[in-house]
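Researcher: Next sequence.
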Amino acid sequence: PFVGGGAVFFHLKPNKAIISDLNQDLIDCYSVIKSSAWRLIEILKQYQARHSKEFFNDLRNRYNVNLLSRIERAAAFIYLNKTGFNGLYRVNSKGEFNVPFGNYKNPSVFDEANLLAVSKLLKNAELYTMTFEKVLDHAEPNDFIYFDPPYFPLNETSKFTSYTKDNFLEKEQ
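Model: Next structure:
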């Protein structure tokens, strides 16, 4: 129900799975990896070749105003995450990606072999953007369900829960 980076899914490599997340861009990215991995890799190669602070800022702006094709947007999602400050994914209340440039000299933007392996594994998965409650409607007896919701802030200075424009706070926990 909270696939995020998918560590458990990719470790277990199930023959059949339903994965979901409220972050639509994340699910769209997984969908593109599933169906168009080679085209995505080609775009990521272009983005990596153009890597600079200026390119990052321009791509972030185009990403935020939705001026990219579906595959370009998935590539931007990966590129911005890999080259943004500390590898963060964070959006503001308008849903705009607002992480600054990471200032890495030669960042590893993507791993071709890994993207192809992920694509193959995602062929066995249904992808959704829905609440965790609705994901449970798909559950059957003996299903393994892994819950890993966003971390609840421990104090006022650790309030980062902005993976989507909607908050996941105490009520949701």
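Model: The chain has a mean pLDDT of 89. The CA atoms of residues 129 and 158 lie 26 Å apart.
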